[in-house]
Amino acid sequence: MFPVTRPRRLRRSAPLREMVCETRLAPTDFIYPLFVRNGKGVRTEIGSMPEQYHLSPDTLVDEVGAAVEDGVRAVLLFGIPDVKDERGSEAWDDAAAVQTGVRELKRAFPDVLVVTDICLCEYTSHGHCGVVRDRQVQNDPTLELLAKVAVSHARAGADLVAPSDMMDGRVGAIRAALDADGRDDIAILSYAAKYASAFYGPFREAAGSTPQFGDRRSYQMDPGNAEEALREVALDLEEGADLVMVKPALAYLDVIRRVKDTFGVPVAAYNVSGEYSMLMAAAARGWIDRERAILETLTAIKRAGASILLTYHAREAARLLG
Ligand code: PBG
C-alpha cells in the first residue's frame, strides 16, 4: 500500500521501463499485405489506402525487397484479376497475377514467407465470396472452388494459404485437397472469426470486391457475437487449421484474448484497411502522431493475445523498431 508501494518507481528511466515492459513488438510479428495484378511496371496508389499500391509481379518483387530491407519477413498476397466472372475462375488460373507473383517472389526471396489469401470475392462479377444461386451464396459448391484456388497457390510456391471466405467446412476441404496433391507440408491460416465489418471499406475499393447486391452478413459474423467466434475457431482447428485469425483487430480485441485463452494456439489478427486508413487520415491532418499511433495500435493487438499481426503498417513499424 501507498506510501510503501509506488508503481512510479519503475517508470523513472527508459532502461527500467524497458526492463518491465510486458509486450514487445518485433518485425518478425508482421505479415505485410500486398495487392498484385498482371502487367509490368505497375505501381498505382490505392485512393482509399494512402501509401499502399497495386503492383505487378515485377514491382511486387521490388516492394518486397524494400520491405525485407526494413526487416519484414512475411507477406500476404491478394490478386486483382483481369476478368471477373460468375464463378471467379481466374482465382485458380495458374497464370493469374497472384500465382505469378508467388513464383517470382519465391525465386527472388526464397526465405520470405509467402501467404496467399484464398477467396473468390475479388474474382467474381457479383463480388461475393462464393458461388451465387438465387441471390444466395451457396456453401458446398464453393468449397471445391476454394480448394482449387489453394492447390493452385500452393503449386506456385505459397508457404501458407489463408482462406478468408467464411464458408462452413472450407478448412477441411482445403486440407484434403492439399494433401491429395502431396502438399501436407503447406499450412492453413484460417480467417476463423471474421466479422461482417465496416472496416473493410477501403479494401473493397482496393480489390474491387464490393458486393453488387446485398452484403456479407449471411457468411461473415455478427459484430455482437463472441461465443460464436469460439465455436468457429474450434471447428476450424478440428478441420485442420494450423493458425487461426481474428479479423478485424481493433474492435475485436476481446475476441483475440478469448481465443488465445481458450485454445492456446498461435493467434493472428488482421489490422484491416479501415483501421489503417483511419489512422493515416488522422495523421495526415496532424490530429495524431503517426508513428506513436502505429506502434501503440500494434502493441494493443499483441497485448490482447495475437502473436501474428497482419498490417499495412508492417514496413513502417519494422523500420521504427529496427
Ligand atoms: C476477402 C477479404 C477481405 C479482406 C481480406 N480478405 C474483404 C471482405 O471480406 O470484404 C479485408 C482486408 C482489409 O480490409 O484490409 N474476403
Describe this structure in words.
The chain is an alpha/beta fold. It has a single domain, classed as Aldolase class I (TIM Barrel, Alpha-Beta Barrel). It contains eleven helices and twelve strands. It has an eight-stranded parallel barrel, surrounded by nine helices. The relative contact order is 0.14.
Structure described in brief:
The protein is an alpha/beta fold and 322 residues long.
**In percent, how much strand structure appears in the residues?**
15-25%
CATH C-level name: Alpha Beta
The third-level CATH topology is TIM Barrel
Order of helices and strands: HEEEHEHEEEHEHEHHEHEHHEH
Coarse shape: globular
The tally of beta strands, per DSSP, is: 12
Q: Mind telling me which CATH architecture this is?
A: Alpha-Beta Barrel
CA gyration radius, whole angstroms: 20 Å
Oligomeric state, counting identical vs distinct chains: single chain
Secondary-structure-derived class: alpha/beta
Q: Tally the helices: what do you get?
A: 11
Bound molecules: ligand PBG
Defining traits:
322 residues, alpha/beta, two-stranded antiparallel sheet, 12 strands, globular, binds ligand PBG
Topology, please?
Elements: H1 14-19, E1 30-37, E2 43-46, E3 49-55, H2 57-70, E4 74-80, H3 97-108, E5 113-118, E6 131-133, E7 136-138, H4 139-156, E8 160-163, H5 170-180, E9 187-194, H6 201-207, H7 227-239, E10 243-247, H8 253-263, E11 267-271, H9 273-284, H10 290-303, E12 308-311, H11 314-321
Parallel strand pairs: 1-3, 1-4, 1-12, 4-5, 5-8, 8-9, 9-10, 10-11, 11-12
Antiparallel strand pairs: 2-3, 6-7
Helix pairs in contact: 2-3, 3-4, 4-5, 7-8
The structure holds ligand PBG.
Ligand PBG is lined by residues 117, 119, 121, 129, 164-165, 200, 203-204, 209, 216, 272-273.
